[in-house]
Write a structure and sequence with these properties.
The protein has 4 domains: about 1-140, Beta Polymerase, domain 2; about 145-230, Hydrophobic Seed Protein; about 230-335, no CATH class; about 340-400. It is about 50% helix and about 10% strand. It has helices spanning about 10-20, 30-35, 50-55, 110-115, 135-140, 150-155, 160-170, 180-185, 195-205, 210-220, 235-240, 250-255, 260-270, 275-290, 295-305, 310-320, 325-335, 350-355, 360-375, 380-400; strands spanning about 25, 45, 60-65, 70-75, 80-85, 90, 100-105, 125, 130, 145, 175. The strands form 3 sheets. It has a 7-stranded mixed sheet. The structure holds adenosine-5'-triphosphate and magnesium ion.
């Protein structure tokens, strides 16, 4: 029998269900990732028990029930929240969006049949072993993403699965099986009926994945990109270097849109319904990557202008060959250097203790800052105290004249 590790609290849950005459399995992404040797952050489970019964079985635990209308009860066990969903078959789909109704089933196989890809359509517990009616384990071994059942039907039911196919292929480095790919192409128009923010979420997951370029190339070749980022100019140079940007939504998106004109890029970001934080970060990259940074004073101006986006923007500029090699390092270096009064190792109180008063305090501190900016190694307490003493002396001498 196929054996897999999972935490003890999961075993506690399956045992409790078994004692109540019900089945429970780990399912979906957590099982897929475990089988790939990656420890998942959290475990999702599926059970034969109806939600009311799950609540009864775990009446002694803290429960979260806001997913009840989809058949989900979240049980907090050993301080881990575990989503437990009753085996489900999805009802008719009217508009490639949401299943019209939720129907429960007593068979795990029926629940697995509604899932999107074979590698996501397995279930496991220690008693039963692996339940794998669609060959998910084999596909996982071969690195293949394959729709469960007829791809044309499955993408008709829910076109978001097209995005998910490319997203998983980028995250897992998997090939999409040929007929699944054909189905995605044939049913791409269904993406027009999917809520834009859901497309945005999948797209961000895709481009922040370790290998986003080949998925993007495929989507572009199959004419899917216009449904995702209408008007995006993808070029080979950008695709090749995309994975060199940190896996941050703004960094990757900004880089991807770096050859697109700013007005168009704004429209694309708006259409993806991203948070203001992600969009404004991406716009900073788009702007910054067009600026060349060749020396420390340019690095300083750049760092002040782009703030927390400065390093990523400098990297984009470097990767695109706008800035010379080393530009990112220069910006990073500048950021570690002192450049505001707050960065000095002494403050107003120290200057007052040395005898300065009123206007003089600010005057002296700004002289010290000038000195430190031109020679950062002077930013040591003792050195600055002695510099401050000298400045005070000078002021006093001027007063006497
Ligand atoms: P991730 O690691 O990104 O969370 P995941 O596989 O867990 O990946 P989820 O979106 O969390 O993805 O969904 C959990 C499971 O639910 C999937 O593994 C899949 O079995 C099923 N699923 C999710 N969305 C769909 C969908 N649109 N159509 C069919 N099945 C779906
Ligand atoms: Mg998940």
């Amino acid at each position: 029998m196929y054996l897999l590790e999972y935490p003890e609290y999961i075993e506690k849950i399956t045992e409790r269900f078994a004692a109540a005459g019900e089945q429970a399995f780990i399912v979906g992404g957590c099982l897929r990732d475990s089988m790939l040797g990656k420890a998942p952050d959290d475990f999702d489970m599926a059970t034969s028990a109806l939600p009311e019964k799950t609540m009864e079985i775990f009446a002694d635990r803290r429960l979260i029930t806001n997913g009840l209308k989809h058949g989900t009860v979240t049980v907090i066990i050993d301080s881990h929240p575990v989503e437990i969903t009753t085996f489900r078959v999805d009802g008719e789909y009217s508009d490639s969006r949401h299943p019209d109704k939720v129907r429960f089933t007593a068979r795990i196989e029926d629940d697995l049949a509604r899932r999107d890809f074979t590698v996501n359509a397995m279930a496991y517990n220690r008693r039963t072993g692996l339940v794998d009616p669609f060959g998910g384990r084999e596909d996982l071994g071969k690195g293949i993403l394959r729709a469960v059942g007829d791809p044309l039907l499955r993408f008709d039911e829910d076109a978001l699965r097209i995005m998910r196919a490319f997203r998983f292929s980028a995250q897992l480095g998997f090939e999409i099986d040929a007929s699944t790919l054909e189905g995605a192409e044939a049913k791409k128009a269904g993406l027009a009926n999917i809520a834009r923010e859901r497309i945005g979420v999948e797209f961000v997951k895709l481009i922040t994945a370790p290998a986003p370029d080949s998925a993007l190339r495929k989507m572009s070749a199959l004419g899917i990109m216009p449904y995702v980022c209408d008007g995006l100019t993808l070029n080979e140079n950008i695709l090749e270097k995309l994975a060199k940007m940190p896996p941050d939504p703004s960094a990757r998106l900004g880089f991807l849109l770096s050859a697109t004109d700013t007005a168009k890029a704004r429209a694309i970001l708006r259409e993806l319904r991203l948070s203001t934080k992600i969009s404004s970060g991406a716009l900073a990259i788009i702007e910054g990557c067009r600026i060349s940074i060749g020396n420390m004073s340019e690095a300083g101006r750049f760092a002040l202008r782009f703030g927390s986006s400065a390093c990523d923007a400098a990297l984009a500029s470097e990767l695109l060959g706008i800035s010379p090699n080393g530009a990112t390092e220069l910006v990073g270096k500048w950021q570690t250097l002192p450049h505001t009064l707050g960065d000095l190792t002494i403050g107003g109180a120290d200057v007052i203790a040395l005898g300065a008063a009123g206007k003089e305090i600010g005057e002296i501190l700004s002289r010290l800052l000038d000195a430190v900016i031109s020679a950062p190694e002077q930013n040591e307490r003792e050195i600055l105290i002695s510099l401050a003493e000298k400045e005070i002396q000078k002021i006093r001498e001027r007063e006497r004249e």
